């Protein structure tokens, strides 16, 4: 999505930056993992296909993608590359032509050392806040593999409720309607987040 190509979101545990070609090699290495392929229902791609996918995600109006960086590592020393701080990604898909206010959200903490540290929770909250304030979203859906207990627990903790189970795809659909109280709660949870201009190729904290 071109809207977020110059947006950096700085949280406490994570930094969200646009998915650029700089991030593709590390992302490609992650997606060689059979565990991640299974959890994300993904097929392995060649490196060239991964670059093509990155360009698509950057340009398509119905996809909003941020790479999740480990904030502590990113801020530790000037000149640290973003690739060395990558923890995962968080995505919004605006795939319902009948209801542009619905966003399908997904998160992946691919780096094993970054799991279980609250990165996914903060990244999802930041992405939901971005979706509500910048994209006008009022409903979120998450489609999660039935065996992905950590992700199911994460979204249930954020007040998502199960609405469907597909035995064919072995996935669960959870949904959240953003009422006014929920909107206020979401904005409170992300009140610490700072939005800054993103400069591709410069990962130094500003």
Regions with little confidence, pLDDT below 50 for 5+ residues:
201-206
Give the strand order of the largest sheet, numbering strands 1, 2, ... along the chain.
Answer: 7-8-6-5-4-3-2-1-9
Largest sheet: 9 strands, mixed
Task: Give the number of DSSP strands.
Answer: 9
Radius of gyration of CA atoms, rounded to a whole number = 16 Å
Mean pLDDT across all amino acids: 91
Descriptive account of the structure:
With 206 residues, the protein is α+β, with helices and mostly antiparallel strands. Helices cover 33% and strands 28% of the residues. The protein contains seven helices and nine strands; from the N terminus they run E-E-H-H-H-E-H-E-E-H-E-H-E-E-H-E. The chain has helices at 24-30, 34-40, 47-59, 71-76, 119-134, 149-157, 180-189; strands at 7-10, 14-18, 63-70, 86-93, 102-109, 139-145, 161-166, 171-177, 194-197. A hairpin with a 3-residue loop joins strand 1 (7-10) and strand 2 (14-18). Helix 1 crosses helix 3 and helix 5 (119-134) packs across helix 7. The two termini are 24 Å apart.
Give a short overview.
This protein has 206 residues and is α+β, with helices and mostly antiparallel strands. The chain has helices at 24-30, 34-40, 47-59, 71-76, 119-134, 149-157, 180-189; strands at 7-10, 14-18, 63-70, 86-93, 102-109, 139-145, 161-166, 171-177, 194-197. Helix content is 33%, strand content 28%.
